[in-house]
Design goal:
The protein is built from 13 helices and eleven strands. With 377 residues, the protein is α+β, with helices and mostly antiparallel strands.
């Protein structure tokens, strides 16, 4: 971890100068070429780095620590991460592996919603008094000073100049993530706690969701997922991609079925033609629920993928298969559309496909069934 003291600053600056001088002198070019080749061959980096481009990439990922508001202050690299980069010849999140401060982890666990702020902002302004005041106990440290003291944020001397607020104050402190490594470390830490929270939320709504699924109360089920799960999820630090949404939903459903011995939950389950997102198998009722999630794409595309990849074939021994397509809006941070199609096996052991049902969120925020043209049913 990096701590704001002058001795540490001087020591880090001396180390980083030696590292960069030794690595980028002309007589070290052979080694640098080997690093670039390793990045391309082993880590999927398509960039054909020059020396300057590699320096910039290292700067973006490992540089940026600053412990003074003086604009002339030099920013510092994390020397430990730089050394490990050249050891492994790969960009890695070495910072988080050096240890996580117990006080921060405790506060995340006690109240993860406290950390729901726009972490993608370029900097964060904080009143001078709030930043410098001494808390009477560790549990009362304000969020931004806590993040600064634990090394996740550093000072931004140019924050006042870049601040577009009309009421900005010249005495304010400005904080920012020092680099990509630290920002990704925070997201990783928070995502682990989000998984735990989703499982707890799922357990709380277990009876209601099981009843909705087994009795085909689709609007009720979708509203529970939208309200009980996604509306309470601390999504602001997760990447707005399908995998993040899928992982959180999988954790939630694991919580829902934690006490149900006859229910099995799988994520990325392999089929003959690919991997489906999430599958629930209710062995007691011989029913399989197949979820396909899409970000920014239509529910029709999600259902079509289930058909094209033959995802449902894995559950042909079930009496009923329910294909659930969900559309996730990365701006609203919630699901906005759904389509559900039920396949039932008859006495001849062939599956009859029931008419597809479409759902959308209405003006007051609840799911309701709509026709194929989006009209209310």
């Amino acid at each position: 971890m990096i701590y704001p003291c002058m001795r540490t600053m001087q020591r880090c600056w001396a180390i980083q100068k030696r590292i960069l001088r030794n690595c980028f002198f002309d007589d070290k070019q052979l080694y640098i070429n080997e690093v670039i080749t390793s990045l391309q061959e082993n880590w999927g980096k398509s960039e054909n780095y020059t020396d300057e481009q590699l320096k910039q990439a290292l700067k973006d990922y490992y540089n940026g620590y600053c412990f003074s508001r003086n604009k002339r202050t030099r920013r510092m690299y994390n020397p430990d991460s730089i050394l490990k980069f050249f050891r492994d010849r790969a960009f890695g999140n070495y910072w988080s592996n050096s240890g996580n401060p117990a006080i921060l982890l405790k506060q995340i666990k006690n109240n993860i919603d406290r950390f729901t702020i726009p972490w993608d902002n370029s900097s964060f302004a904080i009143n001078q008094l709030e930043f410098e005041i001494l808390a009477s106990s560790l549990n009362e440290i304000a969020l931004f000073p806590l993040m600064y003291q634990t090394g996740y944020l550093t000072l931004e001397p140019n924050g006042f100049k870049d601040d577009k607020r009309a009421d900005k104050n010249a005495t304010d402190y400005y904080l920012k993530f020092p680099n990509q490594e630290v920002q990704s470390a925070l997201k990783l830490t928070l995502s682990r706690f989000i998984i735990q929270k989703q499982q707890e939320t799922g357990r709380a709504y277990s009876a209601s969701i099981l009843d909705a699924l087994r009795n085909e109360k689709w609007c009720g089920c979708l509203n529970l997922i939208k309200g009980a799960f996604l509306a309470k999820a601390v999504y602001h630090f997760l990447d707005k991609i399908e995998r993040s949404f899928q992982g959180a939903l999988y954790s939630f459903l694991n919580g829902v079925f934690h006490t149900t011995q006859d229910m099995q939950v799988n994520a990325e389950l392999a089929s003959e033609s690919g991997r489906l997102d999430i599958a629930l198998e209710d062995k007691l009722h011989q029913t399989a629920y197949i979820f396909e999630l899409k970000v920014g794409k239509s529910v029709s595309e999600a259902l079509q993928q289930i058909y094209d990849k033959d995802y449902s074939m894995t559950f042909n021994t079930c009496y009923k298969k329910v294909c659930v397509a969900l559309k996730y809006d990365p701006v609203r941070l919630n699901i906005t559309e759904a389509a559900i199609e039920v396949h039932k096996r008859d006495e001849q052991h062939t599956f009859e496909v029931m008419p597809r049902k479409n759902f959308a969120v209405n003006a007051v925020g609840y799911f309701q069934e709509v026709g194929s043209q989006g009209m209310e049913v």
